[in-house]
Amino acid sequence: MEENELKRLEDNINNSPYFSITGDNMEAARATELNKLATDLLKYGEHYWSRYEYDEHDERDEHIDGIPYWKMKKILYKDVVAETMTKCIKNYNPERACLTNYFKNQVKYAILNKYKEYKKKTNRQKKYIANEFSEELDSLHTDDFIEKLIFSLIQARILDIFEQAFLELNLEKTRARFPTILTRRCFKGLAGMTLPDKRYQWIDYTFLEKYKEDPEALPTQKELATMLGLDETTISHDVGIFRDHLEPLLKKEKII
Q1: Which among 61, 19, 59, 55 is positioned nearest to 36, based on CA atoms?
Q2: Tell me, what's the pLDDT at 197?
Q3: What single-letter DSSP state applies at residue 23?
Q4: How far is residue 27 from each of residues 17, 18, 32, 33, measured CA to CA in Å?
Q5: How crowded is residue 90: how many other Cβ atoms within 10 Å of its Cβ?
Q6: What are the respective helix, strand and coil percentages of the chain, to the nearest 5?
Q7: What is residue 153's DSSP assignment?
Q8: Residue 16, helix vs strand vs coil
Q9: What CA–CA distance (Å, rounded) separates 18 from 223?
Q10: 117-126, 182-191, 246-255: which has the minimum mean pLDDT?
């Protein structure tokens, strides 16, 4: 919006006749002016707060009023502006301040409150996830730990961390067959995902696709060991090593 246009908009808002129209027979006039005022305030709010919509993966470290750009994507600013506009019109006192300043201050306050609510919700989610996995972290030798983890936290970053752990380990006896072993352990989670490409070396895509079509035929660990020509103890041992290597990587990313 050009500066001159913004100035005219501010003048229209601050000099709105809505607050000075009185009388029993003036309801229609008040309704007309209220509609004009609401339209102008929404346009005014859009001018100032449309910049709060940014992509979550925006790497800029700039902030608005101390709030990172990408965080603001979580805030439906249009709803905030509309809700605040209604409250401002209802509570505005023309003798105390001009409406545009009052409106801007109230919207800023409302956005900050929304952000605080978002942070609280996020913290509650993190605590929930941590509690969900507390039992597994206390007993990392349970065979289904990896499957439960990936099934509960299905996201690309998890897959990347599994890849990192897989590439960093040197599992001499099972290296060539370990993707099959991990895919079996994580089958429930992986089967429910859409994997757009086949870039992960730790996933046996052939095994995954085969048993996605016929999950009833999915082999047990004992059956898998026989299929791979390995003993079950070796598989459990190497999975334990992988699990121990995986845990600090997940903690570093604050996933668990």
Answers
A1: 19
A2: 77
A3: S
A4: 13, 10, 9, 10
A5: 7
A6: 70, 0, 25
A7: S
A8: coil
A9: 79
A10: 117-126
Confidence bin at 153 (pLDDT 50/70/90): very low
The better pLDDT of the pair 142, 185 is held by 185
- What stretch of H or E contains 108? helix 99-132
pLDDT at position 140 over 60:
no
- Give 15 or 174, the one with higher predicted confidence: 15
> In 3-state terms, what secondary structure has residue 131?
helix
Of 153, 164, 135, nearest to 193 by C-alpha is 153
Q: Please count the CA atoms within 13 angstroms of the CA of 241 that sit on its side-chain side.
A: 15
Query: Tokens standing for 35?
Result: 């509609």
> DSSP states of 184-244 as a string?
HHTHHHHHTS---S---TT--HHHHHHHHH-GGGPPPHHHHHHHHT--HHHHHHHHHHHHH
Per-residue pLDDT of 94-114, as tens digits, reads 888 889 888 888 888 887 777
Tokens of 92: 């505005």
Q: Which candidate, 216, 150, 140, places its Cα nearest to that of 183?
A: 150
Is there a contact between 232 and 221 (Cβ–Cβ < 8 Å)? yes
Cβ-based neighbours of 174, under 8 Å, separated by 6 or more:
181, 230, 234, 235, 238
* pLDDT value for 136: 37
User: Any residues with CB less than 8 A from the CB of 220 and at least 6 apart, and which?
Assistant: none
How does 123-140 read in b/e, with b if 16+ C-beta sit within 10 Å? Answer: eeeeeeeeeebeebeeee
Judge whether residue 144 has pLDDT over 80: no
